[in-house]
Amino acid sequence: MIPTLTIARNLNAITADQSGAFTLAAVLSCVLAPIVFNKLYQPQPEDEVKTRVVFVGANILTVPVAQQLAKGLYDITMVTDSEKNFRTYNSQVNVKLLSTLDEDALVSAGAFDADIMVLGYMDADRNYRIARMAVDHQVPRVVARFETREAGNERIEELAADGVELFNTFTVNVSLLRGMIESPSTLKLLTDTEAGLYEVEVHNHRYTGKTLQSLPDIGAITVSRIYRNGNFVAPHGDTLIEPNDHLIFTGSKDAARALRSELGARN
């Protein structure tokens, strides 16, 4: 400010009084602005964002998965219309008993206010019907169980075209057995209680625009892929992190929990 005003005075662009006024304004701004900022700014703690997962159907397949996910950064809710299953599993996981699983009941229960909806019934027709509702309510991810082809290939293709992720226990078991035979080390990595394969979506803007090698405790994890805008990116240490990147990495549970908590915090 002062050199600029000096040059302006030498060029007779401003008077001495104007120069003094500008200098006084600059001094007041430097003194008062931080005081006003500190008075008005109220820092808020960063939210630890949990992924909300809603399971539709309480049974021996869905309950163990829900119990495991509840130990991590997941907010688990399970809904069922079976009073028997409700009594059986209510003490093990958060289960809501609904009189029916029609659209109005599911909306009232907040089932569609989820990041992920998992349809775990054996009944393919029921899973198809609820999956269609979930797509209409724009649930970001829908995972539906189809044990047989009773629903028909057209329905399966229709759901797949709408982005619904389909699975059945037969193909899962086949893949598991094949993995045990062909890639035992990889399978151990996926199922190991101390180390595993994890994913986190970047919401914390403190890390966007920074390189992977600047992540906290980067030595304790290995980032294998970045899923960005529908494509996989092969990462390097100097790869810049962008908002909403999905980092797929391996590491210990403690390191994974810390990284997911840090990068997933919304600010």
Would you identify the CATH H-level superfamily of the largest domain? NAD(P)-binding Rossmann-like Domain
CATH fold description of the largest domain: Rossmann fold
Oligomer: single chain
Q: Estimate percent helicity.
A: 40-55%
What structural class do the secondary elements suggest?
alpha/beta
Number of discrete domains: 3
Q: Tell me the total number of β-strands.
A: 10
H/E element order: HHEHEHEHEHEHEHHEEEEH
CATH class of the largest domain: Alpha Beta
Q: Ends: how far apart?
A: 34 Å
Kindly report the average pLDDT value. 85
Low-confidence stretches: none
Rg value: 27 Å
Number of helices: 10
Strand order of the largest sheet: 3-2-1-4-5-6
